[in-house]
Amino acid sequence: MAGTSLLTVRGGTVTRGGRRILDHVDMHVERGQIVTLVGPNGAGKSTLIKAALGLERLDEGDVIRAPELKIGYQPQKIIPDHSLPLSVRRFLTLTQAAAEAQLRALLADVGVPHLMDASVHTLSGGEWQRVMLARAVLRRPDLLVLDEPTQNVDTAGAVEIYQIIARLRDDIGCGVLMVSHDLHVVMAATDQVYCLNGHICCSGHPSDISHDKEFQKLFGPAAATTLAIYPHAHDHSHAPDGSVAHDCGHDHSHDHYHTR
Amino acid sequence: MDLSLDNFVVRAVIAGLGVAMVAGPLGCFVVWRRMAYFGDTLSHAGLMGVALGIMIGIDPTVGIIATGVMISLLLLALQHQHRLPSDTLLGILSHAALSVGLIVVSFMDQVRFDLMGYLFGDILAVTRTDLAWIYGGGAVLLGVLAAIWRPLIALTVHQDMAVAEGVARLSVRLTFMVLMALTVAVAMKIVGILLVTALLIIPPAAARRFAGSPESMAVITVVLGGIAVAGGVAASLTWDTPSGPSIVVTAALLFVLSLGAGLATRARA
Predict the structure, then answer these.
(1) Residue A149 within any structural domain of the chain
(2) Are A39 and A104 within one domain?
(3) Which range of residues forms the domain containing residue A177?
(4) What confidence tens digit (pLDDT) does each residue in A37-47 have?
């Protein structure tokens, strides 16, 4: 059912070694929604994801997951030890058994039907991303968590992966929480963007660029409908140490908790 | 020729095959999870287990299992602090336990204590009771391992992924550590404290080249381990060499052969 709350982080705060990594972060994902998390390196994106998944403890605040929430998680990197022989077929069934036909359909869905018996140690960056995505959706999760699903993939590849994610979301009816390594270009189907830099700097909807002639010319019409620009609406800037410097005279359009 | 259990050679081969069946799959995890040093620590602590077991009058095998489980729990607890790396902690536990074992042994001048037998094993001295331990314990062990197989493989590939998708990390890891302690206790009878790790890691290392999945690697490891045991016993009988080291040398030869097979395949390709 659309609109059902899957995951809520309320006032999430994490301090490690005296450094505040997350500062009163609020985030919310509903069923059917695609939520994208952007932010510079070291902004705490992976920490927030891990806290949301219960892998990292919050020092303050709460994580509320829907009861019996079934999660499919695609981590940023999986590097299986070379001593472990692992075919794509076996990788797909790591946490969930499945029939051969189901695996075949799934690999066809993500566009790599020929890789079933390939060793995961031989996959290219783009193939690996598709196989990891296939594995995460095999168990038909309620919430799909993707940490940089278009890492090591060129723009054309990213467009295809975003199209696959949108199709899988429609098919399974899950919510999607995704980290993007690109600060400005996000998946067009995103319902909500959170820009994180220790705290939530701003959040909102991406802008439609499907009719942008220049963008179409540069990246093609498919890219223009699949990708979108996220116009950041920051009312402050960050000093090199990450602390917040407000530009006076601005309307502060939303609340921050500046405890540093 | 007498092929009943009264023949010590028959007992030796049956015991060795039983140990190979158990050590194979467990040994694969030792390689995949880079736990060779943990295997060493468990077997070194085994001597302490034997010595303490004899001292307080319980079965030495029970003593080995108990100390193995205790050392595992201690390691888990110590790993919660992050200042010292795991291999340092293992080194401390391993050598402290070995030394305690040797000191306790030195006090036992009334009891006949075959230190060399424990250090290097004596497969030709296997008794019917030992066989019961190996096959009884082995069956339980393989049953439990089968039950945690999928989650344990998932944890081995990517811990966070497995936990996020519902694998109970702590209970699976604890179960695995207890299985390791049991395996070491059983394998010690065959190759002794100093060579247990070799029996755990050499057969899977030789099997890697021929395996396409974790499951097939475990099966091939069992076969190679069985060949190593049988070959080692045969060598020991033929040339009167010590049995434990003969088994390990046979396994090492299989590993070298597997390297050669790999080179041959690559040359043809």
Answers:
(1) yes
(2) no
(3) 5-70+141-246
(4) 988 888 888 89
